Amino acid sequence: MPAAAVYNQDHGHVTGQALSTEDAAQLELQRQAIRACLDRYIPESQPVAILQFPFDFNVGNHMMWVAAMDYLKQRNASIAYTAHGLNFDLQEMMRAVGDGVILFSGGVTVSRLWPRHAEIKRIVAEACPNNRLVSLPSTMLFVDDEDRLEARTIFGNHRDVVLLARDPVSAASARSVFPDNVRVETVHDSALLLLQQQRLSAPEHDVIWLARDDIEGVGSSAPSGVEVFDWTHHDPAGMRVMFPGRFFSRVRKLAPALRSIANRQIAGSYDRFSRYMLASGNHRLDTGKVLVTDRMHPHILCTLRSQHSVLLPDRFGKNRAVYEYTSQNHSTVHWADTHEEALEIARSIARRAPI
């Protein structure tokens, strides 16, 4: 039962297409599952540390961060400490969080693809044996047997580690690698906790193509004749939003008496930056009717906007696993194995899409 697009002429913007009844119901079921899972491991009204803030311009990472912040606020959790990979201070985190839960942001965070994530987990697990450690929904993929052997030792003998895998393939992979003291549970990607997002302008193109160019991409070029971009570009305005967080990171390090104030200011600055990046991602998606992408989170953002997307494979199978577990249940998400198939699907949808 699809809903038509709504054009708000009085306020000069497009409020977008509402989720269909079926898609809204499916999304709510997935959100309930994520909240129930997080509730099991994150006590209400207790201090938490949340690590590995995405000090980058990858909108998908910031979608997960905003979703985590919103959840923690609803959970009435006190964010005692937060940091990214370059300003992380183990002793300060331990002092700030006490016996609270330590959270790690989601993504691809236990392999050598993004080694700093695994390194911080290893440091924290060794130093904090009495804190619960929770890795938020992630893809658990490993490059080779050497990577698996190295990952197996990340958490050592820590007795309270929870790895949340965002698809069953990842969960099986994690269970085959990590020892029995590490709990693994499957749950949908946390970005689905975000509220429905709105289109703020009419599209300029029928098809837009968001193509990754990092280690997870397949390396082939998008076809000609479509608008091609990525959403990890440097943003000077975004860096200005981050200035308070950078300033208070120095205060936290140099002025021990002001650490509690600095921690609050840093958390607030990171939150504002991530929301800025989320708005930037929405703006990029506004430019097209239909999105084709080999990145995972853009198609989730499209789902929250009731915007059609075509998802392509990535190098390691992450996209297909998430599609089969989560996304194929949404009417606006379509799978394509090749660029040619993706373009054909996208153009067909664009011809009949309401906006």
3D architecture notes:
It is a single chain. The chain is of the alpha/beta class and 355 residues long. It has two domains: 5-16 and 196-235 and 278-352, Rossmann fold; 19-193, Rossmann fold (3-Layer(aba) Sandwich). It contains twelve helices and 13 strands. It has helices spanning 21-41, 59-74, 90-97, 115-127, 145-152, 168-177, 236-241, 243-254, 259-286, 296-305, 318-325, 339-352, and strands spanning 5-8, 13-17, 47-51, 78-83, 101-104, 133-138, 161-165, 182-186, 205-210, 227-229, 288-293, 309-311, 333-335. The strands form three sheets. It has a six-stranded parallel β-sheet with strand order 4-3-5-6-7-8. A five-stranded parallel β-sheet has the order 10-9-11-12-13, with helices on both faces. Helix 4 (115-127) links the parallel strand 5 and strand 6. Helix 2 (59-74) crosses helix 9 (259-286). It starts with a strand and ends with a helix. The model is unreliable at 1-14 (pLDDT under 50). Its EC number is 2.-.-.-. It holds the Pfam family PS_pyruv_trans. This is Pyruvyl transferase EpsO. Residues 58-200 form the Polysaccharide pyruvyl transferase domain. Keywords: Transferase.
